[in-house]
Design goal:
Elements: E1 2-4, E2 10-14, H1 20-33, H2 44-52, E3 59-65, E4 68-80, E5 85-95, H3 104-118, E6 123-126, H4 133-142, H5 157-169
Parallel strand pairs: 5-6
Antiparallel strand pairs: 1-2, 2-3, 3-4, 4-5
Length: 173
């Protein structure tokens, strides 16, 4: 499905399975921009299964300017117990550097906000790196507010496995 935007020659469309190589290329480009290229361990197979398999866990939008793929957004639903409503969590938004400042990112966020409203979501959230001042300024211009009173917690790799193994072994918590 192609979504026309208010920007001439810019369209957004839902990713299809054949777009997996392009999605992975965008992920790698974003990781390089964020100085995290060495952390990308996903593969086309993993993305294909996660985005288009039996249990789809995320969705991707692709942005095209004059037929060239120039942006992508990967998102999924979360749920607010306080609101009793789903939300949209934006994992990644990326616009190729030569296309920034043309409103493409804003257009993709506006479409995601529209989608959130259409799906009866109470929230639309994402994280941004503290050093990314241009992104922070851009998000503030949209009216986004930081959640300063919350601190993100994460388990991954060995720490995730160690805690999971406690359950498998039947350790008392």
């Amino acid at each position: 499905m192609e979504i026309k935007t208010s920007i001439p020659d810019f369209v957004i469309r839902e990713a299809q399975e054949e777009d997996v190589p392009l999605i992975l290329a965008f992920i790698r480009e974003l990781a390089a921009y964020e100085q995290l290229a060495n952390e990308v361990v996903t593969s086309e197979e993993v993305l294909r299964d996660s985005l288009f398999g039996d249990r789809m866990v995320a969705e991707v939008l692709l942005g095209y300017f004059q037929g060239e793929a120039v942006s992508f957004a990967l998102f999924f639903h979360n749920f607010s117990t306080f609101l009793g409503q789903p939300g949209i969590y934006l994992e990644d938004l990326y616009v190729k550097p030569h296309m920034r400042g043309k409103g493409l990112g804003r257009s993709m966020l506006a479409y995601l906000a529209h989608l959130a409203r259409e799906r009866n979501c109470g929230r639309f959230e994402w994280w941004v790196l503290d050093w990314n001042k241009s992104a922070l300024k851009f998000y503030r211009s949209l009216g986004a507010v930081p959640m300063d009173e919350w601190t993100v917690q994460r388990l991954e790799g060995d720490t995730l496995n160690n805690l999971a193994n406690e359950f498998v072994r039947g350790d008392k918590l």
